[in-house]
């Protein structure tokens, strides 16, 4: 540590429609000192999530809104810089929930696990081997329950969760169809993530017809990260006994990548669910954390075997986090959105 300066980013005001970077305020505070049973953490990487749009809104959600004036929460990878805790040694790398700050003191309750930099790149703890991968794995296997030979469709298919879902489905022997928002992301879906087919929903014309041509036998599992018009088109092609995993609603959340403000209301799906005897279920990963270790183990095995690819969109500097979140919510990222808060230690 070369000085006693710590920076934090606070939520200053709530969004009215789309998220803008001026909702946040960067402040300077002293670097905290760990007491007995605590560690001082130097944050290395911060993960940005589409769900953060819901976290900062004053609206019903699965968690209480982030209080105004509070440090913006977020998942992190950090280095133990000083320790008064018997379970953590200086130099260890940990994944946790330290939020949008450069330095943090922890009693261990907001540290999720230690990382082995030799086993996998430490940033993967914020996507494939973190909550993103857990979401993809458990959402698909616990709710979607795909069988080999079935067709799995995924929206935001080149995003962090969507790209993982597509690759897991392929590893389980399924045929995959990705829906995404640019030609570059279509190419990523097929060349990097192994989708059998991919569509740019912005240029496909009659999206329903394009989906029908790409999945002539129907869609057995739909992993829905968007809602809205994209999902309306997919619903028209559900197979008998299809399963719909509702994981995100970016297209109907104000501030989402394809959102209207106010959001447009699409066709009601009730009739198609009846005719196809399909099942639609919301998925929140926090309800399934008792299976998190199983999910990480499965994903780590596929990663070692070379069956999982990923992209990272890394922005440098904590001060860049608000604008990076804006880019993420506009669908302008290419891969998992991360902020490099501090330089990695030598050998990591």
How does this structure look, described?
The chain has 348 residues and is of the alpha/beta class. It folds into 2 domains: 5-119 and 310-340, Medium-chain alcohol dehydrogenases, catalytic domain (Quinone Oxidoreductase, Chain A, domain 1); 131-287, 3-Layer(aba) Sandwich (Rossmann fold), CATH 3.40.50. Helices cover 24% and strands 25% of the residues. It contains 9 helices and 15 strands. It has helices at residues 52-55, 131-144, 160-171, 183-192, 207-214, 228-235, 270-275, 292-304, 321-329; strands at residues 5-11, 24-30, 39-47, 76-83, 93-96, 103-106, 111-115, 151-155, 175-180, 197-200, 219-224, 238-246, 279-282, 312-316, 336-340. The strands form 3 sheets. Strands 3, 4, 5, 6, 7, 14 and 15 form a 7-stranded mixed sheet that branches. A 6-stranded parallel sheet has the order 10-9-8-11-12-13, sandwiched between helices. α7 links the parallel β12 (238-246) and β13. α2 packs across α3, α2 packs across α8 (292-304) and α5 crosses α6 (228-235).
Gap between N and C termini: 18 Å
**CATH architecture label name of the largest domain:** 3-Layer(aba) Sandwich
| Percentage of residues assigned to helices | 10-25%
Rg, nearest Å: 21 Å
Supply the number of helical segments. Answer: 9
What is the CATH homology-level superfamily of the largest domain? NAD(P)-binding Rossmann-like Domain
Overall 3D form = globular
Text of the CATH class of the largest domain: Alpha Beta
- The poorly predicted ranges are none
Mean pLDDT: 92
* Backbone structural class: alpha/beta
- CATH fold-level name of the largest domain: Rossmann fold
User: What fraction of residues sit in β-strands?
Assistant: 25-35%
The biggest beta sheet reads: 7 strands, mixed
H-E string: EEEHEEEEHEHEHEHEHEHEHEHE
Whole-number total of structural domains: 2
Number of strands: 15
